[in-house]
Design brief:
Largest sheet of chain A: 5 strands, antiparallel
Pfam families (chains A, B): Hikeshi-like_C, Hikeshi-like_N
Strand content of chain A: 25-35%
Oligomer: homodimer
CATH architecture of the largest domain in chain A: Sandwich
Number of strands of chain A: 10
Protein name (chains A, B): Protein Hikeshi
Distance between the termini of chain A: 44 Å
GO molecular function (chains A, B): Hsp70 protein binding; nuclear import signal receptor activity
Structural class of chain A: alpha+beta
Largest interface: A-B, 57 and 60 residues
Family (chains A, B): Belongs to the OPI10 family.
Organism (chains A, B): Furnarius figulus
Number of domains of chain A: 2
């Protein structure tokens, strides 16, 4: 029913079904994961009036599972990209996987999907910054940084006439920086 | 061999094979797409020494196809997330789909995957700001960008001994770029 894809890795399409309405994907080496895509395979839709809440679960320093709500998938929005880097120091939230005691391995995190009534999903608030739409402002941020960089680098710019003789020092034409 | 997923929509796993080594997914209503995930299904790997270049193709105002290189998938990195919103006003780049004349519909864009030698892929430069999956954090992301920038800029580096006389052209000492 569900697939899970860590950006840069092979897709997973066979979650562990830990309860009738709960599915778990393992994320090995989770410290090196930035983005996770969770999607419905398109084979079986949710029953009418139901959808899935998507959780990220990772072991805290004492090996206890910390669960954070990332967001949702539904028949109307059957896939979502989440950014999980940056969540690892966050606080846990309420979650429906409580009694399961998934075995925690220090380097392995989980994506958990819980099938629930849509009206229940509507009352849950995902952690901030997990939805990838926040990448927009981020691009603007780097654009600003690069503008700053050009201002910074060009403050060191010299013309050949001003150069002190040192034939081995490498110089970069300023217009290359601008074009980039 | 390939899957394609528009964030928020159902996954596609059946591209149109337009040549022995070229695959195309249609992206209907592309103006409302932010992120696209391209991934190998895990069934058939690339032949040894080969990988896939991933292109975004959209119709310009006159209905001509504009192709932009987004990035790559390989056996070692079998999936990638790309941000295509923001690319739609960009310039086209060289691409290997030239002779195919894919029919252009105003609201439909394409993802094209071309299977090529890895050494050819290494010489191609994707459009800026398309890759999402390599984004670690503001710092790492900008560090990567700046590394790329330094590699790019230093390919233009000259020493004073190599300079053609043009006293008005501004130059930036390369170590300024490195220190930054």
């Amino acid at each position: 029913m569900f697939g899970c894809l860590v950006a840069g890795r092979l897709v997973q399409a066979a979650p562990q079904q830990v309860a009738e309405d709960k599915f778990v994907f393992d994320l090995p080496d989770y410290e090196n994961i930035n983005h996770v895509v969770v999607f419905m395979l398109g084979t079986i839709p949710f029953p009418e009036g139901m959808g899935g809440s998507v959780y990220f679960c990772y072991p805290d320093q004492s090996g206890m599972a910390v669960w954070q709500l990332l967001g949702f998938v539904t028949n109307e929005k059957p896939s979502a990209i989440f950014k999980i880097s940056g969540l690892k120091s966050g606080k846990g939230s309420q979650h429906p996987f409580g009694a399961m005691n998934l075995p925690q391995t220090p380097t392995v995190a989980q994506i958990g999907i819980s099938v629930e009534l849509l009206e229940n999903l509507a009352q849950q608030t995902p952690v901030a910054n997990a939805a990838v739409s926040s990448v927009d402002s981020f691009t603007e941020f780097t654009q600003k940084m690069l503008d700053n960089f050009y201002n910074f680098a060009s403050s060191f710019a010299v013309t050949q006439a001003q150069m002190t003789p040192n034939p081995s020092e490498a110089f970069i034409p300023a217009n290359v920086v601008l074009k980039w």
